[in-house]
Structures are given as C-alpha cells and as structure tokens.
Amino acid sequence: MKTIAVLSRxxxxxxxxxxVSLGIAAQQAGLxxxxxxxxxxxxxxxxxxxxxxxxxxxxxxxxxxxxxVRDACWRNGCNLLIVDTPPAPTSDVxxxxxxxxxxxxxxxxxxxxxxAIH
Length: 118
Ligand SMILES: Nc1ncnc2c1ncn2[C@@H]1O[C@H](COP(=O)(O)OP(=O)(O)O)[C@@H](O)[C@H]1O
Ligand SMILES: [Mg+2]
Fold this sequence. Notes:
Mean pLDDT: 96
Largest sheet: 5 strands, parallel
Low-confidence stretches: none
Bound molecules: adenosine-5'-diphosphate, magnesium ion
Strand order of the largest sheet: 3-2-4-1-5
Strand content: 15-25%
Order of helices and strands: EHEHEHEHEH
Distance between the termini: 29 Å
Number of strands: 5
Radius of gyration: 13 Å
C-alpha cells in the first residue's frame, strides 16, 4: 500500500479536487483506494459522501488518528490511501507528511500559490 498526502499551505489551491479525483480514478482503475479527509471543513467528505457505489472511498478522520487509519487500511488490503489536508495548522499537515510515502504539493500557476510552496 502507498500513501499520498495532498498538501498546500494555501486554501483554494486545488488539494481537495486533486485528492478526490485521484481517489475516484484509482478506484475506477481497479485499485482499493481510500481518501482520508483530515480537513475540518470536510470538503472531500462533501464531495464523496453521496458516492457509495461501487464502494465508499471516504474516511472522515483527524490528523491524530491518521496512523491508525493507515494501519487499518493496510490490514484491509487497501492499495492506495490519499490524505486530503487543511491549509493549516502546520502541525496537522506534518502528521499527514509523517504517514505519507509521497507528498503532492498542489499550486495554481500564480505568485501567491507558488510562494506558499516554500
Ligand atoms: N485544476 C483546476 N482548474 C480549475 N479550477 C479548479 C482546479 N482545481 C480546483 N479548482 C477549483 O478551485 C476551487 C478550490 O479547489 P479545492 O480543491 O477546494 O482547493 P483546496 O482544497 O486546496 O482548498 C474549487 O472551486 C475547485 O472546483
Ligand atoms: Mg480542501
């Protein structure tokens, strides 16, 4: 199993869109995928809540529970865990980075988005 953390310090960069799209694309490609929403705004959850077929890919959780979520996904034969993160606080995003094999930093092609990557 691989874990991808989708992150950006800036809101509105496209994190949730990328995380949800990756999760659905992975499921459609035959992978057992899960999107873990750790953003209290719950945008990924809003996008995925009504989507139960062929199987729900949504887990609504908190940064502190991410390690347990990752272990549970692994035990249940999950292939891909995608973590949708909030733009802040940094300590919450670091928890997602800690469990990730790969971090995907999302940015619009604008000066402020690119500055937020640093
Ligand atoms: N590649 C894209 N092109 C155009 N609009 C996008 C793109 N990705 C996201 N958006 C739009 O930008 C807004 C913010 O995206 P969102 O994924 O919620 O960002 P974040 O999770 O970083 O706050 C949404 O209205 C979304 O539809
Ligand atoms: Mg978001």
